[in-house]
Design goal:
heterotrimer, A alpha/beta (616), B alpha+beta (121), C alpha+beta (152), A: 616 residues, alpha/beta, Glutaredoxin, Ubiquitin-like (UB roll), 24 helices, 17 strands, B: 121 residues, alpha+beta, 5-stranded mixed β-sheet, oxidoreductase (chain C), EC 1.6.5.11 (chain C), NADH-quinone oxidoreductase subunit NuoE (chain C), NADH-quinone oxidoreductase subunit NuoF (chain A), (2Fe-2S) ferredoxin domain-containing protein (chain B)
Chain lengths: 616, 121, 152
């Protein structure tokens, strides 16, 4: 135990450091050692306290006395007068009215949010079952098991209008009803925790933050369909989620909430965790089932649907984490309450993951039907670093890009689909005006090329072909007809692919061509990337008026393509430049600019090369 | 546990324990320990709180954890909950900031407004 | 050793992914060697080609020896938008390796991976089981430095 009776907080924000707070701190250490009271005073360096004009500032507790403009020579006085005699040094004290009252930085983040699936995330201790129970946990399960029959359970879910939160938006009650109606000695229920969509992390957050809620939702589903065994399929990239779900299953078993005759009913249930090993396609339900069985995660043709022939050929329901997380609340607060939120076809709330160039990145839960503007500008706090909004990618690599003109579109399953995007799992990737849409589309297709399982050729070969065309376009070698070919390929792949991954993979390209056609055309016809992202489609120029002839750029150029002298100033030999950007970084007077468009010299060279290859 | 009545008993007991009265726990410090929080250094922040609390022998302060609240851009996020007062949420926490919160807020009852990102529930 | 790992699980095919994870985690070089595949094949009574099919399908398994610390940089769109390419360039420079390669001292293997699900703090990377967020070039240097020092 320490004997510290005084806390001395020294502001070591950059303002106070520049005013000498570190010297003051050293001086305190010396003087305190001198007086033999080092052990009584706790010296703490803090971040910026705010009143930078009065730096260096320090605060002494327990009194909470603020000192301003403290110099090393003041230290001795503070120690002897204040610390030893208990008399604060008046002349150094910062008066209350001088203190800059830093405005309360309230986040308007919560105002439009309604928490259902995320209700407990960030509030309860996820490793304590008691805390979940304290919030009403397992009461829905108890009520269902003791007062309702399975059909009644399905009817409640039907009345709530709940649809799958993982991507497709398939009505949950239909999946349940199908499996409920099948006769079988064994049925399974699976929680799909293979959240692979880049930009989505709500499932991880719920599994980590409120694992018992997901378990309870799954058990209500299991009772409704007649399953006695459940699996949590969680991707191996989420070690903490795996740990917390395992812990929660163990607790539930110990408490008798899982096992034989739960709540004294005839319902018995066991669950276990299965992990993936890094494959995006395993989020597709048939691929996921293959993976649980110890196979490659290749999707299988539908029909037969998992509801008929699923895990080990038994009727199986696969629901997403967020879908399950909604279930307990639907039973506690009633289907009508849930259905009162949202739009005609999309009921309840949805969790969105805001990422990219937006101020408040993170998870938000809002009623369906909120507009993109509210989502991005109110809840998300607008664009970061003062940039302009350009586009938003909804639904991950299977989704599509929407633009400024769609900002007032309500977010629900149907509206998004009509506009060429999709709800997907709720990833909202916000992009500012510095982003090149051709490059982004190429990036998404590249992702799907990597993740294609290779089983069916439209996806395996078609996507690669699309990628090659996009790559050509971003290198300045696009040609007339490329866009039409991309569209044709995209539509073919969508129609002929075996699973959802392939069917939706062309969406980012199709939607960007639809809404940003002129950007593609400028890449193809003008060999120019207006956002200066595609390295082949912009060039560096040294402004001779600003150049001071210091030669730093020439010395830092890895390919020695910059020459000149102090008098003549410096020039870049464009055909040799590799666009590394070193020169721009080192220029002390910022005389080097990125100019959109291929430099005429480079273009000429490229066209000569192309002519030769055509003649050959 | 076999009946809804059993569940109710556990719930009531747990609700009691989560409250901060009876003088045992005056303040609860809740650190967001989801992956996002941990990726931004929540473990170090948690450790600092535990150390500071034990160094000062503050027996009426409880340090505990929760999942993530969704405020990714402000992780690590820490709540300070005191009976009868609105909850204070601190963001972008570091061990240094944690030390200051202990000194100013926990010990001296003065909210460190520079770090506050939200108040109330 | 491989046999013992296998015996922790019942000899059913659906345990294959678990067994492979377990073998890889326990191997000092974080990979699944040929001998191990033989042992697993015998234990589960399935052909080795099936196991290789599974092994090579999932990106987290390796059939090549890897370093003590496995760096997995997220290459998905939110990280890309937030500048993961600069982070990759920095990592390559710091470690002197390309993606998929291991440093000469066997300390680090640099890999790319699909979304780590920490997109609110992009760009992110995972080193073994620890995730690091809001990466900048300076931060990456610090992290690598710290691990290097910790290992000495």
């Amino acid at each position: 135990m320490s004997l510290k009776r005084i806390d001395l907080l020294i502001c070591c924000g950059s303002g106070c450091i520049s005013a000498g707070s570190l010297k003051v701190k050293e001086r305190f250490q010396e003087v305190l050692a001198d007086k033999g009271i080092s052990s009584e005073v706790n010296i703490i360096e803090t971040g910026c306290m705010g009143p930078c004009d009065y730096g260096p500032v320090l605060v002494i507790y327990p009194e909470g006395v603020f000192y301003k403009s403290v110099k090393p020579e003041d230290v001795e006085e503070i120690v002897t007068e204040h610390f030893l005699k208990g008399r604060p040094v008046q002349r150094l004290m910062l008066r209350e009215e001088e203190r800059l009252v830093s405005s309360q930085k309230e986040v308007p983040f919560y105002r439009k949010q309604v928490k259902v699936a995320l209700a407990n995330c960030g509030f309860i201790n996820p490793e304590s079952m008691e805390e979940y129970i304290a919030t009403g946990g397992y009461e829905a399960l108890g009520t269902v098991l003791t007062t309702m029959n399975p059909q009644q359970v399905i009817d409640v879910v039907k009345a709530s209008g709940l649809r799958g939160r993982g991507g497709g938006g398939f009505p949950t009650h239909i999946k349940w009803q199908l499996v409920h109606d099948v006769e079988s000695d064994e049925k399974y229920i699976i929680c799909n925790g293979d959240e692979g969509d880049p930009g989505a992390f709500m499932d991880r957050s719920v599994l980590e933050g409120d694992p018992h809620r997901v378990i309870e939702g799954m058990m209500i589903g299991a009772y409704a369909i007649g399953a006695t065994k459940g699996f949590f399929y969680i991707r191996a990239e989420y070690p903490l989620a795996i740990k917390r779900i395992r812990n929660a299953i163990k607790q539930a078993k110990e408490a008798g909430l899982m096992g034989e005759n739960i709540f004294g009913s005839n319902f018995s249930f066991e669950a276990e965790v299965r992990t993936g090993a890094g494959a995006f396609v395993c989020g597709e339900e048939t691929a996921l089932i293959q993976s649980i069985q110890g196979e490659r995660g290749n999707p299988t043709p539908k029909p037969p649907y998992p509801a008929v022939k699923g895990l080990w050929n038994k009727p199986t329901v696969v629901n997403n984490v967020e879908t399950f997380a909604n279930i307990p609340t639907i039973f506690l607060r009633g289907a009508e309450w849930f259905a009162s939120m949202g739009t005609e076809t999309s009921k309840g709330t949805k969790v969105f993951a805001l990422t990219g160039d937006v101020n408040n990145t993170g998870l938000v839960e809002v009623p369906m039907g909120i507009t993109l503007r509210e989502l991005i500008f109110d809840v998300g706090g607008g664009m970061a670093n003062g940039h302009e909004f350009k586009a938003v990618q909804l639904g991950g690599p299977s989704g599509g890009c929407l633009t400024r003109e769609h900002l007032d579109v309500p977010v629900d399953y149907e509206t998004l689909k009509e506009r060429g995007a999709m709800m997907g799992s709720g990833g909202v990737i916000v992009m500012n005006d510095q982003k090149c849409m051709v490059n982004v589309a190429k990036f998404f297709i590249g992702f799907c090329v990597d993740e294609s399982c290779g089983k069916c050729s439209p996806c395996r070969i078609g996507l690669k072909h699309m990628y090659n065309i996009l790559d050509r376009i971003t290198r300045g070698e696009g040609k007339e007809g490329d866009l039409e070919e991309l569209q044709h390929l995209g539509e073919t792949i969508s129609r002929l692919s075996l699973c959802g991954l392939g069917q939706t993979a062309p969406n980012p390209v199709l939607s960007t061509i639809r809404y940003f056609r002129e950007e593609y055309e400028s890449h193809i016809r003008d060999h120019s990337c207006q956002t200066k992202v595609c390295t082949d489609l912009f060039h560096f120029m040294i402004d001779k008026n600003r150049c001071i002839g210091c030669s730093l750029c020439a010395r830092k150029c890895p390919v020695s393509c910059i020459s000149g002298s102090r008098d003549e100033k410096y020039t870049i030999s464009q055909t040799e430049c590799i666009k590394c950007g070193n020169c721009q970084d080192v220029c002390p007077v910022k005389a080097i600019d990125r100019i959109p468009g291929m430099h005429p010299d480079v273009l000429k060279q490229l066209q000569e090369k192309q002519n030769i290859s055509i003649e050959e | 546990m076999k009946t809804l009545a059993d569940l109710k008993k556990i719930r009531e007991k747990a609700q009691e324990e989560m409250k901060l009265r009876d003088g045992k726990v005056r303040i609860k410090i809740v650190v967001g320990m989801g992956t996002s929080g941990i990726a931004m250094g929540a473990r170090e922040v948690m450790k600092t709180f535990l150390e500071e609390i034990s160094n000062r022998n503050l027996t009426d302060v409880l340090v505990t954890q929760t999942g993530e609240k969704g405020l990714s851009s402000m992780e690590p996020v820490v709540d300070v909950i005191e009976e009868g007062k609105p909850k204070v949420t601190y963001g972008n926490m570091t061990p240094e900031k944690a030390r200051r919160v202990v000194v100013e807020h926990i010990v001296n009852g003065r909210v460190v407004s520079d770090y506050v990102v939200a108040t109330g529930d | 050793m491989y046999k013992e790992i296998c015996e922790k699980y019942t000899p059913e095919k659906d345990n294959l992914l678990y067994i492979l994870h377990d073998i890889q985690d326990h191997h000092p070089q974080h990979y699944i060697p040929e001998e191990a595949v033989q042992v697993v094949a015998e234990y589960l009574n399935i052909p080795t080609n099936h196991i290789y099919g599974v092994l090579t399908f999932y990106t987290m398994y390796s059939t090549k020896p890897r370093g003590k610390n496995i760096i997995r940089l997220c290459e998905s769109p939110p990280c890309y938008i937030k500048g993961s390419t600069n982070i990759l360039r920095k990592l390559k420079m710091l470690l002197g390796v390309n993606t998929g390669e291991t440093t000469k001292d066997g300390m680090f293997t640099l890999e790319l991976c699909a979304c780590l699900g920490v997109c609110g703090n992009a760009p992110v990377m995972m080193i073994n089981e620890d995730v690091y967020g809001d990466l900048t070039e300076e931060k990456v240097e610090e992290i690598i430095d710290k691990i290097r020092r910790g290992n000495q």
